[in-house]
Amino acid sequence: AYKRFSELLPKEERANACSARVPKSQILTLPELRANPFQDRICHVFSTSVNKDGSMSFEDFLDMLSVFSDSATVDIKSHYAFRIFDFDDNGILDRKDLKKLVNCLTGQDEESRLSHAEMEQLIQNILEESDIDRDGTINLSEFQHVISRCPDF
C-alpha cells in the first residue's frame, strides 16, 4: 500500500510520503477508480483534506483500501457505501440522492439515461423496498437492512 501510494507522488516528494497528500487527480489514475462511476464521491468520503479537494494522506489511502478489501466486514462496507451514495452529505438517501445514484450506474448519455417516468418508478420501487419507516428517505439502518439481504454485497 505504501509503495502504491508513494508512486502517485512526484519523485521529489516520495521520501516524505507519510506526510504528503496525493492530489485527487492522481488518486483517480488508479485502475480501480479510473472507470468507477463513484470516483469523485469515493475521494470525497475518504479524504480528510481541510480544503475539501479530495486529496488523500497515506492514512486516508489506507482507510480506502481497507474498506474495499475482501476482509472488510459488511457493516463497514455498507456504512461507507451509504456515505458515498449520500451525495449531499445529509445522513439520508432522499429522492435526489437516489436519482444521482441511478444516473451514475446507468450512465449520463442519452442512450442509457432513464426517462423521467422510468426514473420515478425505479425510485418508488427502491423506497418501497427499503424505506421501513415510510418517511420518504433511506437512513443508514434501513440501507444496512437491505444490504444484509444481499449476500454478494
UniProtKB/TrEMBL annotation:
Q: What InterPro entries does the database record attribute to this sequence?
A: CIBP, EF-hand-dom_pair, EF_Hand_1_Ca_BS, EF_hand_dom
Domain of life according to the entry: Eukaryota
Q: Where is the EF-hand domain?
A: 73-108, 118-153
- Report the GO molecular function annotations: calcium ion binding; magnesium ion binding
Q: Which Gene3D superfamilies match?
A: EF-hand (1.10.238.10)
Arranged from A to Z, the UniProt key words for this protein are: Calcium, Magnesium, Metal-binding, Repeat
Q: Which SMART domains does the protein's record reference?
A: EFh
Entry annotated with the keyword NAD = no
User: Is Calcium among the key words of this record?
Assistant: yes
Q: What is this protein called?
A: CIB1 protein
Q: Which organism is it from?
A: Aramus guarauna (Limpkin)
The major lineage groups are:
Eukaryota, Metazoa, Chordata, Craniata, Vertebrata
